[in-house]
Amino acid sequence: MAALKSSLWIIGSIITAALGMQLNCTTNRLDVCELHNIVITEYTDVSEWEFPDHHDLQFGGYPMSDDTTLVTAITKDVAEKLTNAQTIQMQNVSLMSFYLWEHLLGLDAAYNYLPELIVEPDTVYNLKSLNLKHNRLQSIDFIKGLYKLRDLDLSNNYLEKIDLSIFDAAKDLTTLKLSHNRIRIITTVGDLLHLPRLAVLMLNNNQLHILDASQWQFNVLQDLFLSNNRLSYISMCEVQSSFPRLQTLYLDGNNWECSNLNNTMAQLHQSSIKVINYSDHNCTAAVENICCF
Questions:
Q1: Residue 144 carries which DSSP code?
Q2: How confident is the model at residue 88 (pLDDT cuts 50, 70, 90)?
Q3: Could you give the C-alpha distances from 158 to 2, 18, 34, 114, 143, in angstroms and in order?
Q4: What distance in Å separates the CA atoms of residue 255 and residue 44, rounded to the nearest whole number?
Q5: Is 7 exposed, middle or buried (0-12, 13-18, 19+ CB in 10 A)?
């Protein structure tokens, strides 16, 4: 695979340097335009390229195997060729850099090598859906300019510390997935963080010892995923105050103290919050099938 993609990079660079290219969709589906047999790197000259005028472009064919498509960088020059596209899908194409433009509504760049998105300061972006799971994110400072986000998936990255205040301006945010990272600390700087439309928050499979929700006001949150962390205690006062409409809570795979967990479960039942096990665990002590110590 590596040798093939290296060869494609060399061949593609030679071809694109020599002549222009009219790219065409390789699928007959009306809802998406698939593009194959393409090599784009940070050195590719796209000045003579013409991309299809389609609202939904898909580079490669993930999850199907596609050894003909390699897109390591979407530079500003490439982005200027794609401004008519409303959504971009480029999973598993070895992407390492992506320059975001204002009018893009949806980006699915999962299973790549992105450390961040390139955004311009003081630019208003219209992006509503962003999937960056399985990349190499260590920081998400670029989120500050994405005020219109509704669905955000940052799972399976290298995040260790999150300041949730970075989402303060994203008042339309509905789903936030931060699972399968290395998050040890979640902070909230400033006043109360109010996310009025957040319905799903996934923090499972991290390294949280403490969940401080005292500054959160997520009035419509329904599903909270906390499984497989290192939590030993949660404040029911914070749960009831911060998540007044919580319906389901995932708690298994933590370091719960049995007596605290027993009291917590009783209060959850009184609040009609359903506790669900995310996976099976072997343990010597448990409260309602949730391991404790």
A1: G
A2: very high
A3: 23, 40, 30, 11, 16
A4: 51
A5: exposed
